[in-house]
Amino acid sequence: MCIDWGTAKPFSVGWYCVADQDTHLAAKNGWDGVDIPAGAVIRYREWYGWDGKADKGKRMPAAVVAQKILERENGEVIDYRVGDTGMWAQHDGPSPQENMAEATDGRFRMRQSKKDRKAMYAEILARLSGTEDYGESGEEGLPMFYVTANCEHFWRTVPMLVLDEFDPDKGPNTKQEDHVYDEVGYALRSRPFVTTERDRENEKWESEYKRYVRKSVDPYATA
């Protein structure tokens, strides 16, 4: 699950899964079936916090948002959650993520998003371009990112975005209703298809940290 936070502006919550093997999904209502390659990310549900007017938020408290997210999940097992880095900001009181954790007895915990617009845009493009070939037959490549039809605010807002006029490598201009786009970017960057130098450094640091923790628990550990 991933969230782009907003109060005066809309917040966007998306739920994702990852295909663990090559899969064919049948479709309804006259749509063609879809072949999804292993490792592809699927955005299968959303909740958009708007008041019914474009780019206007509901001004819901963070604690209420967290509780309603858990209600919508209805016991569904979520492996991890990614939150907008702004949710860790403190303004004369607890941050939004602290309020969320407290309101849910610690059940709502998130990791911070990687906020780099160029890397996000490159990640989305790479996922859409997908695999170079698929299977032994050498058929045309398949995308590594999919969105279901019920994600209405994705389809309402994301296809309409236009690139930044002065720096198109950053992706869409930030003065648009880009909250779903940002949330998608955070989600995909948390499971990178494109590996950057920073990703490699982070992976190296995490590996060293885990090795340190294991040795702290077991001083005779070798790995």
Structure notes:
- The protein folds into two domains: about 1-190, no CATH class; about 200-223.
- Helix content is about 30%, strand content about 15%.
- The protein has six helices and ten strands, in the order E-E-E-E-E-H-E-H-E-H-E-E-E-H-H-H.
- It has helices at about 60-75, 95-105, 115-130, 150-155, 180-190, 195-215; strands at about 1-5, 10-20, 25, 35, 40-50, 80-85, 110, 135, 140, 145.
- The protein has a six-stranded mixed sheet with strand order 7-6-1-2-5-10. Strands 3-4 form a two-stranded antiparallel ribbon. A two-stranded antiparallel ribbon has the order 8-9.
- The protein is globular.
Features:
223 residues, alpha/beta, 2 domains, six-stranded mixed β-sheet, two-stranded antiparallel sheet, 6 helices, 10 strands, 32% helix
Fold blueprint:
Layout: E1 2-4, E2 11-18, E3 23-25, E4 34-36, E5 41-49, H1 62-73, E6 82-83, H2 96-103, E7 111-112, H3 117-129, E8 133-134, E9 139-140, E10 145-147, H4 152-157, H5 179-189, H6 197-217
Parallel strand pairs: 1-6, 5-10, 6-7
Antiparallel strand pairs: 1-2, 2-5, 3-4, 8-9
Q: Write down the domain tally.
A: 2
- Tally of DSSP β-strands: 10
Mass-distribution shape: globular
Distance between the termini: 31 Å
Percent in strands: 15-25%
Record the strand order, biggest sheet. 7-6-1-2-5-10
- Determine the fraction of residues in helical runs and give it as a percent range: 25-40%
Order of helices and strands: EEEEEHEHEHEEEHHH
- Major β-sheet annotation: 6 strands, mixed
**Which structural class do the helices and strands define?**
alpha/beta
Task: Look at the structure and give the mean pLDDT.
Answer: 87
- The Cα radius of gyration reads 19 Å
